[in-house]
């Protein structure tokens, strides 16, 4: 019979090797936080739904929990309070949503979005995430949580004539910019051409982009971006953009990305890399409680640079890392206790 396996690559997909091989096990999802550590969901040799953990790139799988269902799993790539946070959605008939705050050792059930046909989810931090739903030819949409999955709000999508607002997958660029796949537009030639969903204000407004219809593609499934401009989507044929996909269409009105006003701007620190000190600039559009925090590579908080109420305007703060060792660090902006954005900086001595 068929043998399921997990494969890995070290050369960007040119070659693959098998690291986990089993006849009775079934794998349904995986999430890795680096090349060694990751979690895999599926069913074990006794046909119990479970989640495994690996710390050696998949060579060895250790079962950490059972009865969480078969489905998708997602972990943040940094630690929160010294542990990794993750979520698991079981779409194997019970439609349950689970969360762990201690690296997968224990899981507790969370509230799932109310849509029947949930499809794909992704989080940007321990609080903020999105969940798509796609009910085949009848429609779809997207939900957002700001408290780690305790509650979900429906984000409205306003399609134009002939547009079907189905959602399959998403790719989060930052707290504002998100791309999605799964939608399509029906044309008079009786063909359905795939669309790309996009928001530049965290989902307050969702619009769509129309890729080149000469590719004759239906709704796109897979989608991935390396930054806000460069990305790919695939369905039968692949498409590629290096300019963010162009204008967004909302309710048949073309708008440019810059026309959607952001509530904040967190700039890249300068200089970067830096030797001892670096300047962080940010901008807020209304009076808010602001925090700027620095974290190390494992997510441990180093220092809070800003912690006060500030009026709308532009600000800057100096980070002195002269007492730290060389390495990668992160800085985040919190607005009214909600983490809004995180950027990476490199300290070189």
Structure explained in plain terms:
With about 350 residues, the chain is mainly beta. It is about 0% helix and about 50% strand. It has a 4-stranded antiparallel beta sheet with strand order 3-4-5-6, with no helix packed on it. Strands 7-8-9-10 form a 4-stranded antiparallel beta sheet, with no helix packed on it. The termini are far apart. About 30% of the residues are buried.
Structural class, by secondary structure, is: mainly beta
- Summed up, the helix count is 0
Low-confidence stretches: none
Basic shape: globular
**Overall average pLDDT:** 84
Strand segment tally = 33
Q: What helical percentage do the residues reach? A: under 10%
Taking all Cα atoms into account, the compactness measure Rg is 21 Å
What order do the strands of the largest sheet run in, or round the barrel if closed? 3-4-5-6
- Proportion of β residues? over 45%
The main pleated sheet reads as: 4 strands, antiparallel
List keywords for this structure.
single chain, 349 residues, mainly beta, 4-stranded antiparallel sheet, 33 strands, 0% helix, globular
What's the gist of this structure?
The protein is mainly β and 349 residues long.
What is the element layout, followed by pairings?
Blueprint (H helix, E strand, L loop, with lengths): L3 E5 L8 E6 L3 E7 L5 E6 L5 E6 L7 E5 L4 E10 L2 E8 L5 E5 L7 E3 L7 E6 L5 E6 L5 E6 L7 E3 L7 E2 L5 E3 L5 E3 L3 E3 L5 E3 L1 E4 L7 E3 L12 E4 L5 E5 L1 E5 L6 E3 L2 E3 L8 E3 L10 E8 L3 E8 L5 E10 L2 E8 L6 E9 L2 E10 L2
Antiparallel strand pairs: 1-2, 3-4, 4-5, 5-6, 7-8, 8-9, 9-10, 11-12, 12-13, 13-14, 15-18, 16-17, 17-20, 18-19, 20-21, 22-23, 23-24, 25-26, 27-28, 28-31, 29-30, 29-32, 32-33
